[in-house]
Design a protein that fits this description.
Blueprint lengths: L3 E10 L2 E11 L4 E6 L5 H8 L7 E6 L2 E2 L5 H5 L2 E4 L11 H6 L14 H13 L15 H13 L5 E5 L7 H18 L2 E5 L3 H7 L2 E6 L2 E6 L1 H4 L2 H8 L1 E7 L6 E8 L6 H4 L6 H5 L1
Parallel strand pairs: 3-8, 3-9, 6-7, 7-8
Antiparallel strand pairs: 1-2, 1-4, 4-5, 9-10, 11-12
Helix pairs in contact: 4-5, 5-6
């Protein structure tokens, strides 16, 4: 397993700071979900951990060592990231895409070894995508395509997998299919899963640990019961939520909610529609 944590991490673009002095500990061998309003720093946090964007200050540690001191292939053997709405080259087959996950282990001319092919076939089998091995990725449905991308991440053989909104653009059945796959990988393979989710109820259902962010800072981190509660959702999303136990899992779910009056400025800024006679004049 891999141990991941950040200390006083600050990340941003140009002069704009998105993640503000953030200290986060990710539990080993668990599923962690990151929630928060749009623009609060969820994706930025994942990208900085994966070294896709540089940090401004602070530290990111993987297995007790700063990731800035680890070379690219070494890091890729420990950590895989699936970005939001990934895209591959047109005409790429499923098998070819999944084989890209073996890049961190390739040497010399980069030819695939017997071990590489074994891992690729295993990743296809685990994700239920073996029947699509010779199909092109762009010919698949959204749910199938997402499972193929997860298979590529699995082919990296990392203990830690980061996913940025893995259910985006999927219908309810395919969302559940992807999340249940990740749950199985965690429970049967012991993988540490960290994912950004917009759906609070999905976050609570599948997570062992939740991190709630607001404007680049951690509002609360802990078990589902500690985070999915009225005061946190009020602070993070500006909603008045009714929280009840899920009848299937007993975890907290948001049954219904209203915007908190005074938190939205839309009512004050929208003028009434002009009368028809005034428009004609």
């Amino acid at each position: 397993m891999s141990q991941l944590n950040t200390s006083e991490l600050q990340v941003g673009y140009d002069d704009k700071v998105i993640v503000k002095d953030m200290t986060v500990d990710i539990p080993e061998g668990k599923i962690t979900t990151i929630i928060g309003a749009n623009g609060c720093g969820k994706s930025t946090l994942l990208k900085s951990i994966a070294r896709i964007i540089p940090k401004k200050k602070g530290s990111i540690y993987l297995d007790g060592e700063s990731i800035s001191k680890q070379n690219t292939k070494e890091l890729a053997r420990k950590l895989a990231i699936l970005p939001q709405s990934p895209e591959g080259a047109p005409g790429l087959t499923v098998g070819e895409l999944v084989s890209y996950g073996r890049f961190p282990y390739q040497k010399g001319f980069g030819r695939l070894t017997k071990r590489d092919y074994e891992v690729i076939d295993w990743a296809l089998c685990v994700t239920g995508t073996t029947p699509f091995k010779y199909d092109t990725v762009d010919s698949l449905s959204g749910g199938q395509r997402q499972r193929v991308w997860i298979a590529m991440a699995l082919a990296q053989e990392t203990d830690l997998i980061l996913l940025d909104e893995p259910t985006t653009y999927l219908d309810m059945a395919h969302q559940l299919e992807v999340l249940e796959l990740l749950e199985r990988l965690n429970q049967k393979e012991g993988r540490t899963i960290v994912m950004v989710l917009h759906d609070i109820n999905q976050a609570a259902r599948f997570a062992d640990h939740i991190v709630a962010l607001k404007e680049g800072e951690v509002v609360r981190a802990g078990c589902c019961e500690d985070v999915v509660c009225k005061d946190v959702l009020r602070d993070v999303f500006q909603i008045d939520a009714d929280i009840v136990p899920c009848p299937r899992t007993s975890k907290p779910i948001c049954l219904t909610y209203n915007l908190i009056k005074g938190e939205s400025s839309y009512e004050e800024t929208i003028d009434p529609i002009p009368a028809y006679s005034a428009i004609r004049a």
